[in-house]
Amino acid sequence: MRLLVIKPSSLGDVVHAFPAVDMLRRRLGNELESLTWVVNDSLAGILGMFPGVDRIVKFPRSKIWHGDARRAFLEDLRKENYDVSIDFQGLLRSGLMSWASRAPRRIGFSTGREGSPFFYTEKYAPEAKLRHAVEKNGDLVRQAFPGCDELRIPDLNVNPEWLTAADSLLADCEGDGPVLAVGCSSRWPSKNWPTDFFATVLDAVSRRLNNVRIWLLGAPDERPICDQVISGCKMAKPLNLAGKSNMTGLVGLLARSDALLTNDSGPMHIAAALKKPCVALFGATNPVLTGPYGPGLHVVFRSGCSKSPCFKKQCPLNGVQCSHWTDAEAVADTIVAKLGKAGGVQQS
User: What is the pTM of this model?
Assistant: First the structure.
């Protein structure tokens, strides 16, 4: 069987498809001849983590309306004669990709948006009790391919070169103990806890763990936010690595970390996929739907705001901060407990 997986975006959503595709690979076994994955060109590097992808078709999202880019994408998509396509995205563009693939069997969610189900030959609705995106993806596979094994977090590839690059960057971290990664920014302003909250938490962690190493992640344009966190710290000495690595470098850095403190963000899902414990802060969004996946491994702090989850990019209460309902000391205690399991911790 020649299989086409369609899950172009976003970063967290692509990672959320890993367990379902892993389950499908195990179900097909020797029947699976090849696996091709359509992903946004900006996210192609993340598929280096997932074992068994034979070919990547890069979707030029920012250029797709240019005739040459669109033709090149379709030519690349149609280089292989697929037997089955499975669309985990459920949007108009992904439905069109499924149809354009010419696969005779085209699978997708009956609940897909923007008319995407029109392009499928098989449509399945996830069980009503399932809420998390990972479990919904798994249910789509189960219904289309009866006899699947359990849904699990697969073991992922971490290239030794990614780890070497991470070690080089982390060499500048002060301390010799467990490594705490920190994601203090995201694309939605409403998801972001204030920088002084992060500084307070990191100071509290540093008081308890005198050898902890802390680094801040982010894109190049997020370096100023990370600098504000560092400026607010009175005891902690985080290292600002925002913009210092590419996608695969970020994977290496998270693989070398022992825990992640984070807003709701794409790197949170990478860390969860690497089975790294996440201490996650949720206000505008709902962790039941898109929280870090891994039963018993992660801890989520939810805002007590009456509007939470509002699913708004901007705060509907004129900038009232979700952190007002979050105890920084309790967050720090949770991080210390997670790091303590990493071993070699010196508490003071």
Answer: 0.89
Question: In the chain, what's the furthest Cα-to-Cα distance?
Answer: 64
Q: Rg of the Cα trace of the chain?
A: 21
DSSP 230: H
On whether the CB atoms of residues 152 and 130 are closer than 8 A, the answer is: no
Nearest to 259 by CA among 147, 198, 178: 178
| Complete domains list, the chain, with CATH | 2-144 (3.40.50.2000), 160-340 (3.40.50.2000)
Predicted confidence at residue 117, as pLDDT, reads: 97
Give Cα 53 distance to the centre of its chain. Answer: 18
Cα–Cα distance between 69 and 57 in angstroms, integer? 13
Q: Rounded to an integer, what distance in angstroms lies between the CA atom of residue 144 and that of residue 1?
A: 14
Q: CA torsion, points 35, 38, 43, 45, in degrees to nearest 10?
A: 30
Give residues with Cβ within 8 angstroms of 307, minimum separation 6.
316, 317
Looking at residue 209, the DSSP 8-state letter turns out to be: B
Which two three-digit tokens encode residue 209? 């763990």
266-307: per-residue pLDDT in tens?
899 999 999 999 999 998 888 999 899 988 899 999 988 888
In whole angstroms, what separates CA 93 from the centre of its chain? 21
Question: Between the CA atoms of 244, 246, 251 and 256, what dihedral angle is there, to the nearest 10 degrees?
Answer: -20
